[in-house]
Amino acid sequence: MKDTPFTQKHIALGAKMAEFAGYNMPISYTGINEEHNAVRKNAGIFDVSHMGEFIVKGEDALDLIQRITTNDASKLTAGKAQYSCFTNENGGIIDDLIVYCIEEKKVYMLVVNAANIEKDWNWIQKQNHRKTEIHNISDRTCLLAIQGPNATKILQPLTDIDIMNMKYYTFVKGRFADIENILISATGYTGSGGIEIYFENKNGTAGIIWDKIFEQGTPLGLKPIGLAARDTLRLEMGYCLYGNDIDDTTTPLEAGLGWITKFNKDFIAKEILAKQKTEGINKKLVGIEMIEKGIPRHSYEIKNSEGAIIGRVTSGTQSPSLNKAIAMGYVDINYSKIDTEVYIKVRDKLLLAKVVKLPFE
C-alpha cells in the first residue's frame, strides 16, 4: 500500500485510514456529515494525490488525445481544461478524465482516476502509433483540492493569482504559499466551488504547503475532509464515480455523458456510439430519490411494480445536505423518465422511490 506525501499529516489529525486504489487514504476525520457540511457551508481540504497525471507533448499530442478521448480537445486553448473519457473498442468507458491544455496543440496534462493509472497508461501506449512523447508523472505529483464556498477567499492571501475570480474549468501556473510553479485549477468534484493545486514534492514542498494552508485556514474554519464525504458530495451533484456509475461495460451515452461525446471528429468506437445515438439506448443512468424510508446502496436491485428487475443501484446514500435518501443507478430505458415510480429492494423489502432530475435538490 502506497502513502501520499500527506499520509502522516492525516494520521496526526486522527483520520480513519483505509486502503483506496492501492493508497493509504483518509476516509474520515470527525464524521461524514460534519465534513460534508463543512464543504457545503465553508471550506474543506482533500488530499487527492493518489490521482494519476500524464503529460502528452509534441506535434502529434492533440491528434493522439483526439483519437483516445470522446470530447473535442481541439477546442482547448492554453489555460483551459475539459472533462472527457477514454472509450474501448466496444464503446465502454475505460476511464473518465480531465484534459488540461498547457500549450495549445502541443502540451497537455491528463488527470485520471487512481485505480486506473496502470490500465490507462497501457491503453494510451497501445494507441500511441506515432510515438508521441508521453510521461507518467503520477508518483511525483501532489494534488490537494480545497473546496467550498469560502475556499478561494480563505486561500487568496497565499497567492498573487486572482483565484477568487477563476472561471470554471480553467487553470493558471504561478506562485502559491511562497512556492513557484504551482498549477492551480478550478475543476471541482463537489459542486461547491474551490480550487485544486498540483505541484511536485521537492525538498519538503508538500509539508510546507499543507502547513501554510492550515495556518491560514484553521482560524477561518477550514477542515480536513476524507474520501467518504467526497463521495456524498459528488453524489448529491450527480457526478459519476468510476467503478460504481461508469465502467468498461457502460457507454458515455448510457451514463448521460453524451455532452462529452463529440461526433465531429474521429475517436475509438465512434461508429458504435453513433449507432447507439441513432437507434437509442436500452438502459440509462438516472437519479433516484426514496419515497419510503430506507437507504439504497451499491448493487441493490431496482424493480417495477410487478417485481421484475429493471436495473441496479450504482451509488446511494443518505444525503447530508438534503436530509433524504438518494441514489444513482441504471434502469431500463422505459423507466427512465422523471417522476417514474420504481422500487428499491432494501434487504427483503421493496421500497417505493422515484426517478428525479440531476443534480439532486
What are the defining features of this structure?
single chain; 361 residues; alpha+beta; six-stranded mixed beta sheet; six-stranded antiparallel barrel; 20% helix
Strand percentage, roughly? 25-35%
Helix percentage range: 10-25%
Number of H- or I-type helical stretches:
8
Order of SSEs = HEEHEEHEEEHEEHEEEHEHHEEEEEE
> Alpha-carbon distance between the termini?
38 Å
CA radius of gyration is 21 Å
On the 0 to 100 scale, the average pLDDT is 98
Q: Which structural class should the secondary elements be placed in?
A: alpha+beta
Task: Describe the overall structure.
The chain is an alpha+beta fold. 20% of the residues lie in helices and 34% in strands. The chain has eight helices and 19 strands. A six-stranded mixed β-sheet has the order 10-11-12-9-3-13. The protein is globular. The chain starts with 6 loop residues before the first helix and ends in a 5-residue tail after the last strand. The mean pLDDT is 98.
